[in-house]
Amino acid sequence: MRVLFTSFGARSHVYNQVPLAWALHTAGHQVCLVSQADMAEVLAGTGLHHVVAGPRSDGELDAAGAGAFFENLEFDFTLHRTADMTLEHLQGVFAVFGGLVFPYSASDAVLDDVVRFARHWRPDLVVWDPYTFFGPIAAAACGAAHARLLIGLDFIARMRSVFLGLTAQQPAELRDDPMEEWLTWALGRFGGTFDEQLVTGQWTIDAMPESMRLPVDVDYHSMRYVPYNGSSAIPDWVHEPPKRPRVCVTFGVSNRDSGVDIPDLLSASLDAVAALDVDVVATLNADQLTNVRSIPDNVRVAEYVPLHALLPSCSAVVHHGGIGTFSAARVYGVPQLIVDSRPGNFPDPGFMGSYVSDAGAGFGLSQAEVSPESLRDRIQLLVDDQRYATGAAYLRAEALATPSPNEIVPALERLTAQHRTVT
Fold this sequence. Notes:
Blueprint: E1 2-6, H1 11-26, E2 30-36, H2 40-44, E3 50-53, H3 63-72, H4 87-105, H5 108-121, E4 125-128, H6 134-142, E5 145-149, H7 155-168, H8 178-188, H9 197-200, E6 203-206, E7 220-222, E8 246-250, H10 252-258, H11 263-274, E9 279-283, H12 286-289, E10 299-301, H13 307-310, E11 316-319, H14 323-332, E12 336-339, H15 350-358, E13 362-365, H16 372-384, H17 386-400, H18 405-419
Parallel strand pairs: 1-2, 1-4, 2-3, 4-5, 5-6, 6-7, 8-9, 8-11, 9-10, 11-12, 12-13
C-alpha cells in the first residue's frame, strides 16, 4: 500500500514520524513524507521519499515564529479537569484553533499542494500529525484511510470530547462549533463534507504510556517510542565509559528552534551540578550560552548529541518535559528530572513529572520550584539512590513490552483495508 505522512513544520514533529515511516518502508510499502517547504532539508535527511508543500515562509512560518505565536495565545490548551473546561472557554479555544492555529500550519497554498499531490499519488493511508489537518482533508479528498500519530498527550481529543458533551446540552441555535465551521470550509473547497473523524482520526497511534492516556473515547493503538534524532555526527567521547556518573542536561531542539529564552533555568542547572561528583554533558548552543554566568569544570558543552547515543551511558537526565527527551529516557531506563520551562499554553510537562515521580523514576519541578539547591538535591538523589534506577528500569520494561513500529504494521494494513474508499 501507499502511505502518506503529513507533519507540522518543526523538526521534532518530523522526527516523531520517521520510525513508523521506516517500519512501513521496510515492510515493503511505498512511503512519502510531506511537510511545509521550510522542512525540506529535514525531510531529505530522513532518507525517505518526500515532498514539500507551499512556499518557503521567509520567516513567517519558521519554528521561531511558531514558538512566539503559540506563546502569545491567550487561551490555555492544557486544561484536563472537566470542571475547568467550560463551554465558553472551549468555544474560544476552538475558535483560535480553527481561525488561527490550524490555518497557520495549513495555509491555502499548503493545503492545495497536499491535496493535489494526494489525488495524484493516491495513498491508501494518510498518517497525520495532530496539528496538520491538511492530512485528513487530503485523505477525504482522495478516499484514503487516515490515522493520527500523536506527539504527546491527546489534549485536543480530550477538549473536543468535553466540548461536544457540553454543546449537546445547548439549544440548537447556540451550538456554535468553530472547529466544524473551519473544517467544513476547508474540505468544502474539494467537494467534501465535515465528519468528526477529521478532528480525531479514524484511529489513533499513540507512543505515550497507556497509564498517562487521557479519558477519551478514541480508538487508540499503542506503539513503542523509537528515538530518531536526524543525521548528525557522534563524538568519539560518547563511546568512552564515564569515570563518574554521567548526567545529561538538555532543553531540547524545540525550545532552541522556537527561541524560548530560559537563561535563569540554564544558569540554575549549571550551578546545581558544579559541586556534584558527576560528569555533565550539556547540549547547548552558542545562543543559549549567551547569558549563562559560567560553565563549571565538570560540564562538557556539546551543541548537539543524539539522545539515542548519549542516554545509554547516563545515570540521570535533566530536561524540559519535551516528548522526545521524556520518551527516550523512558526507553533507555534513565532517571529523569523534568523541569517545566515551557510557555503556559503548551502541553503540561507536569503530567510527565507526575508519571516519573509516581513510578519512583524521577521528579518533576514547576518553574516556581526551580533553584540551584532544589535541582542539586534531586540530581544527587537520582545518581546516588538505587531506587530511582530501579524505577527507571521498570519504565523501560513497560516501554519495551509495547509493540514496536514494525510490529504494528499488520494492524495498520488491516485498518487501512477497512477504512479506505479508494480503489
